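SEQUENCE-TO-STRUCTURE ENTRY
===========================
Question of interest: how does this chain fold, as expressed in backbone structure tokens?
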Amino acid sequence: MAELITLARPYATGVFAHAKEHGQLNKWSDMLAFVVGVYQDAGMQTALASPALTRPDVERMFQSVCGERIDDVARNLLGLLIRNDRLEALPQVRELFEELKAKEESIVDAQIETAFPMSNEQLAGLVKKLEARVQRSVRPSVKVVPELIGGVRVQIGDDVWDASVRGQLNSMATALTK
């Protein structure tokens, strides 16, 4: 079977186009997060594993659980995914939608690793510097990694900036062994 991300792409681009056209990017972000949460729920996964459930049963089950938390277009998306046996691609639909939304809003995600917890002021200062460097808004995700010894390591997309003590020690070790 094709990769789930490949299966999800047309659904995500369709949903994104609809949401953008109707000014509902945040609404769709919330609805997709909710639906993916329902899909990934342990009880739902157990129910979906039942061979006795038909596709119409699965669709009715999702519609009843989601209720008014999703609109008619989201219900249609769910029905389409179920009828086309693509429900397992739902998390990837959400992931791709969020990537498209972030690109539209000129937002990039930054994975920041730091040796010690950062204060809000330190994080705000770092984010400001990163935004100046990449010329886009930065959405930070911070993780404390004591192995860095000191400093920070930042990854935005394929770009990595390593200003950690561990990174500097590794650079020196590489330079000395050449």
Observations:
- The beta strands are 107-114, 137-144, 151-156, 159-164.
